[in-house]
Amino acid sequence: MLVASLGRLLLPCEAAGVDLGAALLFVSRKMVEAHLTCIYRKLHVRSRTDLRRLLTAADLVD
Questions:
Q1: CA gyration radius for the chain?
Q2: What does pTM read for this prediction?
Q3: N or C: which end of the chain has fewer CB within 10 A?
């Protein structure tokens, strides 16, 4: 599932998560951050901590 994959990729609470995601997707860090902003807005999430809670509650990550 895309959401679970995205969550596993970008949940680390350090900037390296975004850098790693950008490198794996062959896009810029800014593009990843822009898309994350849109995703967070749609999910009503304000931080990666909130995203982890949401994904954990849905049993998409451990």
A1: 11
A2: 0.61
A3: C
